[in-house]
Specification:
Low-confidence stretches: none
Number of helices: 6
Strand content: under 5%
Structural class: mainly alpha
Oligomer: single chain
Distance between the termini: 36 Å
Order of helices and strands: HHHHHH
């Protein structure tokens, strides 16, 4: 059930561009908190979200630049950190490489 709910959180995060305009719901502070709520530890989700927001504070789309994917980093990093009993460093350790991998895949899709 938690996997399905996290899938819905990911859809909510990626639907930002299609449904909400620029409401900033894809930012880590929101995604981590909702993921923490789904996993049953809202306080840890908010703490991880606030700290991960600092890591992504300057990430914005300007012109044709494609920034790192904050949604995947927030959801996967928070999920692994909460389920393993870790903290923010665990979330960043798993979240940032995933966000870069997703960015690489997105760029390859855009090229072809």
């Amino acid at each position: 059930m938690q996997t399905f709910l996290i899938f819905l959180v990911a859809i909510f995060g990626y639907a930002e561009y299609f449904l909400f305009g620029r409401a900033q719901t894809y930012r880590p502070i929101v995604m981590c908190a909702v993921t923490g709520l789904v996993l049953g530890d809202l306080s840890q989700g908010v703490i991880i979200g606030a700290q991960m927001e600092l890591a992504f504070i300057g990430v914005q789309e300007i012109g044709l630049s494609t920034p790192q994917d904050m949604v995947s980093a927030s959801i996967i990093g928070t999920s692994i950190a909460i389920q393993s009993g870790g903290n923010f460093s665990t979330a960043i350790t798993f979240g940032l490489p995933v966000s870069m991998l997703v960015l690489l895949v997105q760029n390859l899709v855009y090229i072809y």
